[in-house]
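sorry to bug you again but im stuck and you know this stuff better than me. below you get a single protein, a line of residues and a line of whole numbers that encode the local backbone shape. mainly i need to know what kind of three dimensional shape the backbone takes. anything you notice is useful, everything is just below:

***
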Amino acid sequence: MKPGSRSQFYDRFFLWLFVVAAVLVAAVVMAIIAIVAKQGFQTFGSVNPLELHFSTNWAPPEHFGALSFIVGSLAITFLAIVLGGPLGLAGAIFLAKVAPQSVRQVMRPATDLFVGIPSVVYGFIGLTVLKPVLQKIFGGSGFGLLLAGLILGIMILPTVISISEDAIRSVPRRLEMASYALGATRLQTIARVLVPAALPGIVTAFILAMARAIGETMAVAMLIGNAPQMPKSLFTPTATLTTEIVLEMGNTPFGSPWNNALFYMAFILLAISLGMILLIRLVVQRRVTAE
């Protein structure tokens, strides 16, 4: 085989290899969505859709009100991003524009290592360290949205820090220098030039962190209390879609209304995650268009 033809063969081979891999990945994702949706929508053969979406009475096999789980998932995600988002952004700014290079070389790998810590470890730390502190300060059992939200806020820090830092460092150097040339201080340059210029990347980091938080199961199951009731305060034991699915899926006969309802709750999680991915693509597309 001639060198030129051999190169063309390799090019075509790897091109088709990548195409097949992309098709397989897309097929697997679509199959998961189809299976979960098919099984989940069978719920409505025996359960009133209004009850499932707008009732808080979860008492299978008679009542399947999942509103408290939906609200719990959204509330804990919002709380996690409120607690962890600003702290992660501050850490990203520090690593990108304030920290010396020697500090960044240590802190950035250390931050990335947090991703590899199992969620059950975070949950155990929450039980043994944070829960007694919250009990001492606020009383009660300590379980609830605040305890789980604090741990989730810590868990999403690596996502917010790494992506936000990359976004800030990708801002053209000339914008920063122009700000300094006009007499702006470092704080003014960061707040009025760098952060607005990197805003699409920062928004992407926050959305990915929210997707990470809403899909978390083990740490939340250990800390939230797992009570099928609407959260009335930050210290009310409640449950989320993920925790209820993992706690009850193994005890339900496949194909039963109870089992189908859990599949439908999983479909709701998939829909929320896909919506966040589409939102990220919209943000990136607007950034490309603006450039």
In short: Residues 7 and 13 are 10 Å apart (CA to CA). The chain has a mean pLDDT of 87. The chain has two domains: 3-45, 49-290. Residues 49-290 form a domain with the MetI-like fold fold (CATH 1.10.3720.10).
